[in-house]
Amino acid sequence: MNMLELIEKKRDGGVLGKEEIEFFVKGVTEKTIPDYQISAFLMAVLFKGMDDQETTDLTIAMSESGKICDLSDIPGIKVDKHSTGGVGDKVTPILLPIVASFGIPCVKLSGRGLGFTGGTIDKFESIDGFCTSVDPSEFKSKIEKCGMLLGGQTSDLAPCDKYLYALRDVTGTVPSIPLIASSIMSKKIAGGSDAIVLDITCGSGAFMKDPDSARELARRMISIGKLAGKPVTCVMTSMEQPLGIMVGNILEMQEVVSVLTGNGSDEVKKVVLTMASEMLKMTPVGKDLDSETLMAMCEEKLKNGEAFEKFGELILSQGGMLQSDGSPVFVDRPCEVMTVYAECSGYISKCDALMVGEASCLLGAGRMEKDDVIDMGAGIRLYKKIGDKVSRGEELFSLYTGTKNPVGDDRIDEALFKMQDAYEISDQAPAKPKEILEVIS
Ligand code: URA
Question: Is the pTM of this model over 0.85?
Answer without folding.
Answer: yes
